[in-house]
Design goal:
With 137 residues, this protein is mainly alpha-helical. The chain is built from 5 helices and 2 strands. The protein has a two-stranded antiparallel sheet with strand order 1-2. A hairpin with a 2-residue loop joins strand 1 and strand 2. 1% of the residues are buried.
């Protein structure tokens, strides 16, 4: 159970880390897709679009699989996991921010505020949608 929880914690943290990473060619940078990956591969525009599409599908599938297993956890473990993920996210955020110059930190902070606003809007939309679906049924 401990190994499963560790794997799930890591898997759940990946989207947060991807969001916090700088953008390149319209997508997040990852260690295996560095800043010059598209340039190094000399991909056409169509290939880049298809690559992004496939990576998006992979991320969606990853989230669905993770959610399926997370739904099986007892509520106490879900809350503990949520707290630990938030702590890890905050530490990662601080580490990333500490690498930046004051000007970059300002831009980073602005970007984080925008991302938080988007997350809040999405949460509000999902709540509205769930309420609407509940009334319809």
């Amino acid at each position: 159970m401990r190994k499963t929880l560790t794997v799930l914690l890591f898997a759940a943290a990946l989207p947060t880390l991807a969001i916090a990473m700088p953008m390149d060619e319209g997508g997040p940078r990852h260690h295996d897709r560095g800043p010059g990956m598209f340039k190094e591969l000399n991909l056409s525009k169509e290939q880049r679009q298809e690559f992004r599409k496939l990576m998006g599908e992979q991320m969606k599938s990853h989230r669905e699989i993770t959610k399926r297993y997370l739904d099986k956890l007892p509520e106490a473990e879900k809350q503990a996991m949520k707290k630990e993920l938030e702590t890890a996210r905050a530490a990662q955020h601080k580490a990333l921010r500490d690498l930046l110059t004051p000007e970059q930190q300002k831009a980073f902070d602005e970007h984080q505020k925008k991302m938080e606003a988007r997350r809040a809007e999405m949460a509000e939309f999902k709540a509205w949608k769930a309420e609407k679906e509940a009334k319809a049924n």
